[in-house]
Specification:
Blueprint: E1 5-10, E2 16-17, E3 33-38, H1 41-54, E4 74-75, H2 80-86, E5 90-91, E6 95-100, H3 106-117, E7 123-127, H4 132-142, E8 149-153, H5 157-166, E9 171-175, H6 192-209, E10 212-217, H7 230-234, E11 237-243, E12 250-257, E13 265-271, E14 274-277, H8 281-286, E15 295-302, E16 305-317, E17 325-328, H9 332-345, E18 353-359, H10 371-383, E19 391-393, E20 396-397, E21 403-404, H11 409-418, E22 423-427, E23 435-438, H12 441-448
Parallel strand pairs: 6-10, 6-11, 7-8, 7-9, 9-10, 17-18, 19-22, 22-23
Antiparallel strand pairs: 1-2, 1-3, 4-5, 11-12, 12-13, 13-14, 15-16, 16-18, 20-21
């Protein structure tokens, strides 16, 4: 009988190694190698030979004759903006992967979604982390009492797949994929082999029965989805739940969506009764604003939704030889680049200043048009001058100090007008009487940052 062999598999990227290593040579992560037993080559070869002869010809049909899925086959979540992110709701037979930091509200929003859908459909909530009584406490707090909402506790991927296959549920929640395992595999739950195989079983069951499935996934300390990357390729939709779990707004966006756009975003805030949609986030973000030096209002986009948010900057004299740069809600590498452009293209001296940037409300700005607002906030803080409070700012800053065009300027301007702002400092390419055009960074600072 052939001897079994073992190899080590990276739990972050799935790389294989014949021996254990502290650092994965493929992805660079530490302490991610886990031992896994592999089948002998003779067993693999015989299995391949059997597969080659046991296959059968597939039944096929013309794509034009395939009936389209009706819009009513989508399950509405009860949140209008979240339905927009998903492309209209959860599609029957689709598998969605929801990821987010611990405590951010994944279980809360899933319970709210379950309760809404269970008013007219059969829903099953499967937890591998909590007991029925624990889930009942959350349901009671959120007022989830729909009769068609069922619960089961299991950590067996095979049992869950069997339940989906043999039952008539419209929506199944699996919380979470890292707790599941198969008895046939010797590795621990959460490893690459367990996550991949359990995910495959559940996805097959969902497609075979036309059941919508939502799988909850853990995240790493960097905020990326934990487990093998292949899991993201297997599912239909990958949803990220972002924000500060201790307060502020929380954003849900789809980073992968086979049935809709990935440019939409839904904004929520936590209340005593669970998560609620923020209908006018711009007004909420600006309600406590004080017009001081270092404060700039940015007209940005969350997906396709225009949003006005305050960007704050603080500059202090450094106590050491190396100045400190800190950013909250903004990319630190981009901040360092903008500081270099600001110092090179203007007369501001920043090499002896500690610079801190904060985006109010706990939002994470990924819009390139935030460059001009960040640069003007830094210049305002250093020069101790402030921008008139009726101005908003947007525009991308190039390495030459030029101000480049922004995506969808008309929506940004319309949002600023709606909230009572008088003008927008924006790229000269935007043709609108509301806009104060600027071509380069130096002219923007000289022309408009002149109040003390």
């Amino acid at each position: 009988m052939a001897k079994t062999k073992s190899e080590f598999i990276c739990q972050n990227c799935g790389a294989h190694s014949p021996k254990w290593a502290g650092k994965c040579p493929n992805c660079g992560e530490w302490n991610t190698f886990v031992e896994s037993v592999t089948e002998p080559e003779t067993v693999k070869k015989s299995a391949l030979d059997r597969s080659a002869t046991s296959g059968k010809i597939l039944k096929f049909e013309s794509l034009s004759s395939v009936s389209e899925l009706a819009e009513k086959s989508r399950l509405k979540t009860g949140f209008k903006d979240l339905d927009t992110v998903l492309g209209g709701g959860f599609l029957a037979g689709s598998v969605s992967l929801l990821a987010g930091q611990p405590g951010i509200g994944k279980s809360t929003i899933l319970m709210q979604i379950c309760n809404h859908i269970a008013t007219s459909h059969h829903v099953l909530y499967i937890s591998g982390e909590e007991s029925a009584s624990q889930v009942k406490l959350r349901a009671k707090r959120l007022g989830a009492n729909a009769k068609n909402l069922n619960f089961a506790s299991s950590t067996s991927g095979a049992d869950i797949a069997k339940t989906i296959n043999e039952s008539d549920f419209d929506l199944v929640i699996v919380d979470s994929i890292q707790t599941l395992s198969l008895d046939e595999l010797t590795s621990a739950p959460g490893t690459v082999s367990q996550v991949t195989n359990c995910g495959n079983l559940i996805i097959r069951a969902a497609k075979a029965t036309n059941t919508a499935v939502i799988i909850v996934g853990h995240v790493t300390k960097e905020g990326t989805l934990a487990g093998p990357k292949v899991l993201e390729h297997l599912v239909d939709v990958v949803i990220n739940f972002e924000g500060d779990r201790y307060g502020g707004f929380k954003t849900i966006r789809a980073v992968k969506n086979r049935f809709g756009s990935t440019s939409e975003a839904a904004i929520f805030e936590m209340s005593e009764k669970g998560l609620v949609e923020v209908k006018n986030p711009s007004a909420a973000l600006l309600a406590e604003r004080q017009n001081t030096d270092g404060s700039i209002i940015l007209a940005t986009l969350e997906g396709t939704r225009p949003l006005l948010v305050e960007v704050q900057a603080l500059a202090t004299s450094t106590n050491f030889g190396y100045p400190k740069r800190t950013a909250s809600g903004f990319d630190l590498n981009r901040l360092n680049l903008l500081i270099a452009v600001l110092e090179r293209r203007t007369k501001l001296k920043l090499n002896d200043k500690d610079i801190f940037i904060n985006v109010v409300g706990g939002l994470k700005i990924q819009d390139s048009a935030a460059d001009l607002a960040v640069v003007m906030a830094i210049a305002s803080a250093v020069a101790k001058r402030k921008l008139p409070e009726e101005y908003v700012v947007f525009g991308e800053v190039g390495l030459g100090g030029e101000i480049r065009s922004a995506f969808r300027p008309d929506q940004r301007i319309a949002e600023a007008k709606k909230l009572g702002f008088k003008n927008a400092i924006a790229p000269a390419t935007v043709k609108d009487s509301f806009v104060l055009p600027v071509k380069d960074l130096r002219s923007a600072l000289i022309s408009y940052m002149n109040e003390t």
